[in-house]
Amino acid sequence: MPGIGSFPEDDDLSLSWAGMHGTGYANLAITHTDCLIAVGTRFDDRLTGGIDTFAPEAEVIHVDIDPAEISKNVHADYPLIGDAGRVLDQLTAAVREAPDAEAWRERCAEWQDDTVVTTGVGQHQMWASQFWSYSEPRTWVSSHGLGTMGYGVPAAVGARVAADTMGEPDRDVVCFDGDGSFLMTMQELSVAVREELDITIAVLNNEYIGMVRQWQDAFYEGRHMASEYSWMPEFDKLAEAFGALGLRVDDYDEVAPAVEEALDYDGPAVVDFHVDPEENGNPPDGRADEDATDSRPVTDGGSAADDGPESDSRPVPSEQPGPEERDHPKGRRNLEGIRIDPVVEAEHEPQRAVISALVEDEPGVLARVSGLVSRRQFNIESLTVGPTTVDGHSRITMVVEETDPGIDQIEKQMAKLKPVISVGEVAGDAVTSELVLLKIEADDPAAVHAASEMYDGETVDAGPETITVELTGDKTDVDSAIGAFERFGIVEIARTGPTALARGNTPTAPGEKPGTAGEPTTHDD
């Protein structure tokens, strides 16, 4: 919702909302698109529904200035972190020619309106954002994700004062409110009456906290708690008691005359619309797929999804391949929104492998690498990092227990990270070693020192209660040494995990050129 007004909704390229409270054609477009560019969205559950079925055929380009939002819910195949305006300019410059996407474009109504719309919180908020077309910024005033019930009326008072102050007395200010939200701040009508403010308040009165009731019906088998408001007052009479115009609407035929009277009235007006208590936002079950239908009303009182030759104004695809004919990314998404390669998902025996990556020293590079492997749920046994002979370059070594396809995916995904210079599996005969510090109980110091010498260890600290021993070696040697010291009582242990270098002149990672200080390490040309 915060993006409303940033792009005209009456533009031919606008498909309006998607998701639980969106239009049917927007959900269908997301379901069948092969490229989804998401700018500043958090992919919440009301947009995605079930993540494993959201945009199943799309490669996702996620643009956000906050790295924490990237791949938090839906995995980004191409994460782009930065200011949205600059990133979009860069993307535009990178596209050599506009794609032929005429078949995907949906015409929207040409009606434009510069009315300022305010809302409370609930179903009425969703309907106001869906069924009203916004073509200018700052014409949609809502509390969005803050969920501030009662926001609508005082916001309308403020919007009216602002419009009058800016010399726009003819600009309409309309508040769409729910009965629950209106109850919370209806006393602000006294301010509107006192200041003679021309605002119109449409109360969608269903005698429920509608959004809560809808979710209780959908997910809690219709068990209602604190959502039924059958004792609602008569809002039209309350408005009159405040000195405002009060109107009541019970039948469809009364809607147009009441709206005209309220808008023509020079002052605050309240229309108490009694609506179907069971009406839901569409799609009511949170799905974003082919079963989602368009509930946007049209002039004859029907729906944009009505049958008939003129019910669909979208262009018919001509030379464009249909959804079933296009190439699509393979594999489903898991519950974390990450696409699973079918080859990886197949049955394979896991094996232990050492992955070495040469990286540029940049802030956050280790966090990006570790975040990548954790999001994709790779089985990482250990991860070490340290400087190399070249200034500004470091080596990251990971020991993984994965299937062959899983190891291949680790290499491919890490190679996509910009700071990674080269990455690959280290050969089995590579030189591997790790460092271990053992803090051991000092009840028998002579025996501890003897064991340390046996495993080529070094005593780095000795006291009356503990002795700290430093050990190095490959995994087998280190495991044996730790087993030997366990009989003395190990108080604490710090284990780095293996690091590795290929033998001889063989590059440790494919494409790596071994270098010295002042001689950058790069890919082969």
How would you explain this protein's 3D organization?
The protein has 525 residues and is of the alpha/beta class. It contains 15 helices and 18 strands. It has helices at 24-32, 45-48, 84-94, 123-131, 152-165, 179-185, 189-194, 210-219, 235-242, 255-264, 342-345, 365-375, 404-415, 445-454, 475-485, and strands at 35-39, 59-64, 78-81, 116-119, 140-141, 173-178, 200-205, 245-249, 269-274, 351-360, 380-387, 393-402, 420-425, 431-441, 458-462, 466-473, 490-495, 499-501. The chain has a six-stranded parallel sheet, with helices on both faces. Strands 14, 15, 16, 17 and 18 form a five-stranded antiparallel sheet that branches. Strand 8 (245-249), helix 10 and strand 9 (269-274) form a beta-alpha-beta unit. The radius of gyration is 32 Å and the shape is elongated. The chain starts with 23 loop residues before the first helix and ends in a 24-residue tail after the last strand.
Q: How would you describe the shape?
A: elongated
The helix content, as a percent range, equals: 25-40%
Oligomer: single chain
Average pLDDT, to the nearest integer? Answer: 80
Low-confidence stretches: 106-112, 284-318
Helix-and-strand structural type: alpha/beta
N- to C-terminal distance: 48 Å
- The largest sheet has its strands arranged as 5-4-6-7-9-8
Total DSSP helices: 15
